[in-house]
Amino acid sequence: MGVLDWIISNIFTQAGIVIALIAMLGLILQRKDAGTVLSGTFKTLLGFMVLAAGSAVLVATLTYFGTQFEAAFNLTGIVPSIEAVNGFATNDLGLGGPIAIAFLGIFIVNVLLARFTKWKYIFLTGQALLWMATMTVVFGSAVGLSGPWLIVLCSIVGGVFCVAMPAIAQPIVRKVTGNDAIALGHFCTVGYMVEAGVAYLVRDRRPDRKTTEDLKLPRAFEFLQDTYMSLAVVMIPLYLITALFAGPAASAEASGDTNYLVYAFLQAMQFVVGVYVLMAGVRLLLGEIVPAFRGISMKLVPNSKPALDAPVLFPYAPNAVIIGFLTTTVGTVIAMFVLPLAGFAVIVPGMLTNFFAGGTAGIFGNAVGGRRGAIIGGLVHGFFITLLPALLVGTFQSLGFPSLSATDADTIVAALLFAWVVGPLMKAF
User: CA-to-CA distance for 75 and 386, rounded, in angstroms?
Assistant: First the structure.
């Protein structure tokens, strides 16, 4: 058990290593020479780490922006964090062991389902598997499950979601990418499909409808067609205005001797840098993992597709990512004020979720309903991903959690369905 725990903690929770090992397996199965296997494995790991480095820059600058946003508009409430839920469940509830084993079990069930069913998706977003394991174990233990039954049932539920969610999203992913080479492995898919549904209802029905990527600007503003310039034009004012409202004291610790507005400007530029690095990592990763995956498709799991993290879609519709982020943020702010009127807790917008999930949802809305779908769908998406954590606050408090709630719509839905089905059975038997 000690060796297994070490492997799970040090290997299987490291998404980059897992993806690199899978790429290596794919190349070996294709009987590539040692140099090609080594190069492909290394470049896959490098691509993932470049992507992760870009994500880390974005996390840092969005964390800063989130604190400024709260200070600027005097917001207090619950900021949903699946990471915090995992930490409390592991350290305070003593569920670290079951979560780790369920993590591995979910991946095994995923591979088995991909091998023996028509859902040929292998979920390769390691941290998302950990969040799924966390939520199912927490809610499974809450309804009375323990021991092997807890592990087995959590693994089955998580494994089913690993193939079902990419399968549900694949028709739109195929439309976005223009091919069937990759799938989406991000447990926010329920929210994406909500946006897609709204976008379909409000879509411009003309056959020549404009999408977010068809924006045509006057010659003087053509520089904005560059993704990174358009990002800067949006993010710099957003950061500066928020910093002005927050005042110098809100960023004193972070900015140090630097003027708070200058620091806000630099953080906005860091956001652009993070997106640039992330996009470079995506291109490098896709260039290696897709060819390497053919070996697995041919030998182990015929016709399988790698389900990858949300940023792999960003290069296909960069304008939709920006619009999705902004409209989702507006939707979360609206929900923050509206939901307490119905008796829910105040859920403060989480900028990380708004960017990664909102940006991806924007791509879905644009693919289905063009500009109108991306904008209106984004507002509904923001409201929806605020409602789900609000529904969980009371349940978490009854389980002994502090003022916490979770993110990632699919993990919330999976946990609630799991408890809803298993809970009555536990009482009956």
Answer: 15
How many CB atoms are closer than 10 A to CB 141?
19
pLDDT over threshold 60, residue 429: no
Helix (H, G, I), strand (E, B) or coil at 142: helix
Tokens linked to 393: 């606050």
Please say whether the beta carbons of 22 and 125 come within 8 A: no
Contact predicate 402/88, CB 8 Å: yes
* Cβ contact 281:43 at 8 Å: no
Mean pLDDT, rounded, for 172-188: 94
291 burial (CB, 10 Å; 0-12 / 13-18 / 19+) is middle
Nearest to 390 by CA among 416, 420, 369: 416
Instruction: Taking the CA atoms of 19, 23, 28 and 32 in sequence, report the sign of the dihedral they define.
Output: negative
94-152, pLDDT tens digit by residue?
A: 887 888 788 878 988 998 999 999 999 999 887 788 889 999 999 999 888 888 899 99
Given a cut of 80, is residue 89 above it in pLDDT? yes
Long-range contacts of 212-218, Cβ-Cβ distance < 8 Å, separation of 24 or more:
212/317, 212/319, 212/320, 212/323, 212/362, 212/366, 212/370, 212/371, 212/374, 213/317, 213/318, 213/319, 213/320, 213/366, 215/319
- Give the integer Cα–Cα distance in Å for 168 and 170: 6
Query: Rounded distance, CA 333 to CA 352, Å?
Result: 14
Identity of the amino acid at 15:
A
pTM for this model (two decimals): 0.81
Ramachandran quadrant class, 94 (left: phi over 0; alpha: psi -120 to 50; beta: rest)? left
State the amino acid at position 401 in one-letter form: F
Distance CA 240, CA 46 (A): 34
CA-based nearest residue to 162, from 179, 146, 141, 185: 185
Provide the terminal-to-terminal Cα distance of the chain, rounded to the nearest Å.
31
Tokens representing 15 are: 């998404």
| Angle between helices 409-428 and 189-202 in degrees, nearest 10 | 120
